[in-house]
Design goal:
alpha+beta; 4-stranded antiparallel beta sheet; 14 helices; 20% strand
Amino acid sequence: MHDVREAKASLFERALAALGRRASETRAWWVPGRIEFLGKHTDYCGGPSLVCAVESGFAVAAAARGDRRVLVHDAQSGERAEAELSAELVPPRSHWANYPFTVVRRVARNFPGALHGVDLAFASDLPPAAGLSSSSALIVATFLALADVNDLERRPECRDAIRSREDLAAYLGAVENGDGFRSLAGDRGVGTQGGSQDHTAILCARPGALVQYAFAPIRFEREVPLPNDHVFVVAASGVVAAKTGDALARYNRASSMARRALEQWHAATGSTAPTLAAALAETADGIDRFRVLLGGNPELRQRVEQFHAESGFVREAGEAMTRGDIDRVGALVDRSQANAEQLLGNQVPETIALARTARELGSRAASAFGAGFGGSVYALVRSSDAKEFLGRWAARYADAFPHRAQAATFFLTGAGQPASTR
């Protein structure tokens, strides 16, 4: 495995160089990507997830400005984006600046009054648009910088609404999808209809472990230590998991189907359950009642069945991992992957092949994760076999998908630390 400290130090140097400020004039943060071990499209439905941070992420350096301008520098590409810290800002939908500038607009709306802009630079070793949550990491990073230079935690509206890291994750999930959070009014988001799983993993991860959270609202359920002789090999497939245009519509389809199923439940039962999880819990035979209710709509029925099954996989896998039954964990992850292929319908040939090949090569568990329609696959393997496994897995992928392999990235990671100041 690469030297994590050395890699981070190099990224911070690049971010500082792009910012053009001395280290003493800046604040710096590490904001990681994440692995969704289990919990495919469960969070916004009120279900649970098992997640961890990865050891790759964003090195972020920022300095306060004397005006309300916000400059964001991508240290790798050399691109810069600039905007006013304004409630009327219109972020560009089809550009990476959509993510930081959605935060800028929301901060201006939720915390009106005198605010300082910021010069922010980032350098990242996360493959972009690969299901590792680089977009949510950029949202977290932007808010941390703006909150720091404006001392937002002292503002009464912030103190009243955001009282913990979990609250911050929920708020930033709401920023991303456009919802309100407590007294902090909603606004336009980035265009995705997601939840707060990614932000929770980034802000609340625990080194060396998976964390199990339930959502809507966020509730911590358990810490699940990973076996200390195992690591993840991650394969970013080279199929971009984009969230614009037609790809955005496909991504949002899982969310819209869950919402439509819940609406039908409300209409049929008079329930006001806020999420699918809450609706399923209203009666002991909730899943059977949903099957009857949605019998004439196979797509909606399959979406509810996938959510119900996935929620069970998360909790059973957490228990199995805790008692050291990795074989059972692997079997549950296999079922989750099969449901993603058959019920969610959000897998592509590349991610299907990567998951199956990983198991053939001896991984203890393997699954695609993230939004779907591309992105990444993880394989949980013994540390002693990891480098050899990575080479064999990458070679099999190159043989099967030579046109994708050129853009693919394979790397090793443990369960990393959450977002933190440097």
